[in-house]
Design brief:
Layout: H1 4-16, H2 18-34, E1 41-45, H3 51-58, E2 62-67, H4 70-81, E3 90-94, E4 107-113, H5 123-130, E5 133-144, H6 151-155, H7 159-168, E6 172-174, E7 180-182, H8 186-195, E8 199-200, E9 204-206, H9 221-235, E10 246-252
Parallel strand pairs: 1-2, 1-4, 2-3, 4-5
Antiparallel strand pairs: 5-10, 6-7, 8-10, 9-10
Helix pairs in contact: 1-4, 2-9, 5-8
Bound molecules: S-adenosylmethionine.
């Protein structure tokens, strides 16, 4: 299904700006806090240009990263080439959720960030990804927050679009890359993980206060740090996290349990 071969440049512009960085910094901070200090085997599904893959490898983990888009994979390969010290810890493969080439393999963590929003629904994906999580391992999902649909449009001053999104109760709106994207609730994602035998951990809302800013938002380093600290604090707490643009859900497979 992916239109990503055509939107790689827009993705890089979004991902590389302060707004995009906020998201990566918040998600990476949580993930690294949940992972053991020893090197872990991590699978990053829909790795895009490899931002999280490279961060996890830089922290000492062994990362297998997959993406179905030739263009995104080429971007990840180019970024990896700039970090030769990470080459031994990163494996990049062309594959999507429907064609994952792992038969019987399991991982200490399986990440799927910013991908479910491009699928028709989350159920099959969460079940498939959960099946790849080892005992004591982690499933990390970053999804568009269904509960916040209309917030960005409203805060940007587009009252008409916001009102019709909210009135209709739709789960889909146009995302950062000008593609329609579908939202999920953290509660539904937790329920799906639990149905696959995983135990949900506390979830966070990602980008509560800075989501509606433009991609050219460019705070100075001090301003960025203050924004990051504010977002981290609010990310755990309702009602703030309930209206964040994204939800980061995590779930762990109990030690000694079978898949
Ligand atoms: C918004 S990007 C997110 C990239 C990265 N995970 C991140 O968080 O920055 C979405 C990625 O999902 C990939 N994708 C789209 N459909 C997919 C599928 N069915 N299975 C796996 N990846 C998919 C796209 O090619 C794209 O690279």
């Amino acid at each position: 299904m992916t239109g990503f071969d055509a939107v790689g440049v827009a993705y890089a512009a979004h991902s590389g700006g302060a707004r995009g960085r906020l998201r990566h910094d918040l998600v990476a901070a949580r993930l690294l806090a949940e992972l053991p200090e020893r090197p872990s085997r991590i699978l990053d599904v829909g790795c895009g240009d490899g931002e999280m893959t490279l961060r996890l490898a830089a922290a000492g983990h062994d990362v297998t990263a997959v993406d179905p888009s030739t263009r995104m994979l080429a971007a990840a390969t180019a970024r990896l080439a700039m970090r030769p010290e990470l080459a031994d810890r990163v494996r990049l493969l062309k594959a999507g959720l429907d064609s994952l080439p792992f038969h019987g393999d399991v991982f200490d963590a399986v990440c799927c960030h910013g991908v479910l929003m491009y699928l028709d629904g989350p159920g099959a994906a969460v079940a498939r990804l959960s099946g790849l999580v080892a005992p004591s391992g982690l499933l990390s999902v970053l999804a568009k927050n269904r509960r916040a649909i209309g917030m960005r449009e409203a805060l940007r001053g587009d009252s008409g679009t916001a009102r019709s999104l909210i009135e209709s109760g739709t789960d889909t709106s146009v995302g950062n890359l000008d593609l329609p994207t579908r939202g999920d609730t953290a509660q539904a994602l937790d329920r799906l993980a639990a149905e696959s035998g995983l135990t949900p951990l506390p979830w966070q809302g990602v980008r509560v206060f800075h989501d509606h800013l433009d991609d050219d938002w460019a705070p100075d380093p001090e301003g960025y740090e203050a924004a990051l600290r504010l977002e981290w604090t609010a990310s755990w707490k309702s009602p703030y996290r309930d209206v964040a643009h994204l939800v980061h859900t995590l779930a762990r497979r109990p030690e000694g349990s079978r898949r």
